[in-house]
Amino acid sequence: MISAPIQPSLRAWPAPAAVLELLKPLTWFAPMWAYMCGVVSSGVPLADRGFALAAGVVLAGPALCATSQAVNDWFDRHVDAINEPGRPIPSGRVPGRWGLGIACVWTVLSAAFAATLGPWVLGAALVGLALAWAYSAPPVRLKQSGWWGPAAVALSYEGLAWFAGAAVMANALPDGRILALIALYSLGAHGIMTLNDFKAVEGDRQMGLRSLPVVLGVAGAAKVACAVMAVPQVVVVGLLWSWGQDVYALAVALLLLVQVGLMARLLGEPRRLAPWYNATGTTLYVVGMLVAAFAVRPLVAGV
Predict the structure, then answer these.
(1) Of 60, 38, 64, which Cα lies nearest the Cα of 49?
(2) How many whole angstroms separate alpha carbon 207 and alpha carbon 196?
(3) What is the pLDDT of residues 230-282, one digit of tens each?
(4) What's 33-59 look like in SS3?
(5) What is the pLDDT of residue 212?
(6) What are the beta bridge partners of residue 210?
(7) What is the Cα–Cα distance from 182 to 175, expressed in whole angstroms?
């Protein structure tokens, strides 16, 4: 096993900019969007739960997602020294054990913050935090598996965030139709997470991480990812149609049709085009999530 050295640093503590980079604000969008889908799907008027809405967005992004990023970067520091040596920890800009300390502090603060939003949100947050550590930290290290690793991330970023948004608004367990959408879009997000693994094939192979691009090859993993993204959306279309939400079902179907066209191009050069697909096809995927949330909203509200 080949390991690139972590760069030493003369700093005793990290600069604020390095800490912010470690927490990766750009990654916060996905769970914040999913949380908003949960809020919309709940059927509860936004004005009735304004504080919970704002607090939950902070919880989903700057708290929970940021925690997962810090945890992952600490336990991936040797892999990153091969794949992306300029990251805060391998570059030495977050020196010593500061990365681990930040991950631990953010975990405690996130759990405490979630507790202020009620038991359902706290429960979802604790599951998300447990998955964040299990994904990256030994001995579990779910990311060693190309099946369990993406599943943990997809559930955390999409499913638990959507669940928390619906639960915080209703202050109760979300409606069964919402739970069905959560399960389907979480499953589909597994494919999105697989595409994210394409950029780190060499480092994953050297470090013994069995991501799907390593196990199946890039071409095989791309086919699996596309199927996993598409099939749950087909089921969503069928559910919306069966619930009498024909217009919304058609909208999700059209979004999926465009995604399939983009997938055809992706499969031609999956490794080079994975970032392009994430900017195009994945965007259409999450737009479909919001469309489905609006579709179920009047059903849950009894309108």
Answers:
(1) 38
(2) 17
(3) 999 999 999 999 999 999 999 999 999 999 999 999 999 998 999 999 999 99
(4) HHHHHHHHHCCCCHHHHHHHHHHHHHH
(5) 82
(6) 145
(7) 11
CATH 3.90.1530 fits 16-301, yes or no: no
Half-sphere exposure of 132 (CA within 13 A, CB side): 28
Domain range list for the chain: 16-301
What parts of the chain have a pLDDT lower than 70?
Answer: 1-11, 200, 202-203, 207, 303
Q: Which residues contact 8 (CB under 8 A, 6 or more apart)?
A: 92, 95
The 3-state DSSP class for residue 135 equals: helix
**60 vs 31: CA distance, rounded Å:** 6
Using the 8-state DSSP alphabet, how is residue 65 labeled?
I
Tokens of 278: 């994430």
Residue 262 and residue 281 in contact, taking contact as beta carbons nearer than 8 Å: yes
Cβ neighbours of residue 60 under 8 Å, at least 6 residues apart?
28, 31, 32, 34, 35, 161, 164, 165
How far apart, in Å, are the Cα atoms of 166 and each of 182, 230, 231?
10, 24, 24
C-alpha span between 110 and 243 (Å, rounded):
37
Q: How is residue 251 written in tokens?
A: 């909208």
pLDDT value of position 80: 81
Spatial contact of 236 and 252, defined as CB atoms under 8 Å apart: yes
- Rounded CA-CA distance 284/296 in Å is 19
Amino acid at 180: A
C-alpha triplet 129, 130, 134: angle, nearest 5°: 120
Q: What is the DSSP letter of 63?
A: I
- For 153-178, the DSSP string reads HHIIIIIIHHHHHHHHHHTSPPPHHH
Predicted TM-score of the model (pTM): 0.90
